[in-house]
Amino acid sequence: MTTRSPDVIEEFLDEAQFELRHEAQRRSFAWYLTGLLSPLERKSVEPIAGLVDPEHIKKTQGTLLHFLAYGTWKDAPLRALATRFVLQRAAPRASDVLGVILDDTGMLKQGNASVGVQRQYTGSAGKIANCQIAVTTAIYTARETLPLDIRLYLPERWANDPKRRAKVGVPEEVVFATKLEIGLKILASAHAAKLPLGKVLLADAGYGYSAAFRNAVLDLGLRYGVGVQSTQRVWDAAGTWTRPMTVKELAAVMPARDFRRTTWREGRDGKRMSARFAAMRVQVAAGDDEPMQKDPKQWLVIEWRDGEAEPVHFYLCTFPSKWSRKRLVRTLKERWRIERMHEDLKGEVGFDHYEGRSWAGWHHHVTAAMCAYAVLVAERATAFPPWKAARTKAHSHGRAA
Q1: CA-CA distance, 200 to 317, in Å (whole number)?
Q2: What per-residue confidence (pLDDT) applies to 392?
Q3: Buried-exposed string 354-393: b where 16+ CB fall within 10 A, e elsewhere
Q4: Helices and strands (H and E) in the chain: how many
Q5: Burial class of residue 315 in the structure, from the number of CB atoms within 10 Å of its CB (0-12 exposed, 13-18 middle, 19+ buried)
Q6: What is the DSSP string of 94-129?
Q7: Band of the pLDDT at 396, cuts 50, 70, 90?
Q8: At what angle are helices 211-219 and 179-192 packed, to 10 degrees?
Q9: Helix/strand/coil (H, E, C) string of 279-324?
């Protein structure tokens, strides 16, 4: 992602020391962060120990294992530090944060002893696999994306099994929560901490299908742009229908001319990414009762991708009514950022390389990975500060004029 900058790493470690009570913790954290930021192919404890202290690998390995699995240091303060550290460099003004994205990602595992692992569907693999699932949130600016928080999803079979919980040290206060509920807790915590979340929340249909979730997002003062299932029922905002329709039914009767090709960005191969989209104002159906005038109106966006026999992707958005179709689409498609962030977390800082099995160890490792990722983003923002990019853009506009 970028060249290592010792100054940024040292600056982060200087700030992190105040969140770690003991010198041994500070040393272990520095070792582990160094390993996660290194070019090591496998960023688990043993290779990291060999990198940072090649003459005492076994001893250092034991120290790092204890630091992760049994260390009494707290995750939340270091995660908050990582967020603040990046925001100071990449988004010095709260208005620089454009929005927040909610998603989940899987970490493939062997066996069934690691906390939370079981055969379950993961979108990152696109199939049912033996894995752990992490619920993630990210905030994004015009140029950067950074993790806001990451929490482990504990399946119901795990949450309700006292023996398995005890074996991996799941705290008593942790009870079963759906991925949707975990996501809302993360958002509520960030809102309470007055962290900038931007103006919009983006999520796929795994979250957006829930009316309770959508309403909770509005209660936090955010607009949403979320995927919904084909069975979602709506009324037309103009009030001409005599019954509500599912979004799939609506797509089937829409004239082909209502679907307009829209490009949202260039892909990694340089090709322009586009599909056909239709957009209309609707009101969400609640039972069969006709909507009230006071019921909020919002956008329904229907995406018809090339090669599909019919549209199968639908979105509800509370974005302003004056927005163009292109702006609606380009905002919705910003959700790709969190998928790219997951790739970078796994490929750059060993997010999914932890081989321990405990609840505390998993969360400590993820905290360290979030801190390492924060260093990467901070390095890039330091080398190419936002104000410099804005000034360059202004100058180029001036020359064009």
Answers
A1: 9
A2: 41
A3: bebbbbbbbbbbbbbbbbbbbbbbbbbbeeeebeeeeeee
A4: 15, 12
A5: buried
A6: GGG--EEEEEEEEEE-SSS-STT-EEEEETTTTEEE
A7: very low
A8: 0
A9: EEEEEECCCCCCCCCCCCCEEEEEEECCCCCCCCEEEEECCCCCCC
Q: Determine the 3-state secondary structure of 208 from DSSP.
A: helix
Sequence-distant (≥ 6) Cβ neighbours of residue 80 within 8 angstroms: 193
Q: Is the pLDDT of residue 28 over 50?
A: yes
Distance in angstroms (rounded) separating the CA atoms of residues 78 and 211:
33
The tokens of 362 are what? 């998993």
What is the Cβ-side half-sphere exposure of residue 116, based on CA atoms within 13 angstroms? Answer: 26
Contacts of 349 (CB under 8 A, 6+ apart): 36, 37, 43, 369, 372, 373, 376
Model pTM?
0.92
Tokens of 26: 């500070």
Structure tokens at 394: 């202004």
Residue at token pair 């410099």:
388
- Which residues, in sequence order, are CB contacts of 133 under 8 Å at separation 6+? 104, 105, 106, 107, 116, 120, 122, 152, 153, 179
Q: Pairing state of beta strands 260-266 and 245-246?
A: unpaired
Which helix or strand (DSSP H or E) is residue 266 part of? Answer: strand 260-266
Does residue 326 register a pLDDT over 80? yes
Tokens at 258, concatenated: 């209502």
| Angle of helix 45-52 versus helix 57-69 axis, rounded to 10 | 130
Cβ contact 353:372 at 8 Å: no
Residue type, 350: G
Report which of 179, 171, 213, 218 is spatially closest to residue 197, judged by C-alpha positions. Answer: 218
| Of 279, 288, 375, the residue nearest 328 (C-alpha) | 279
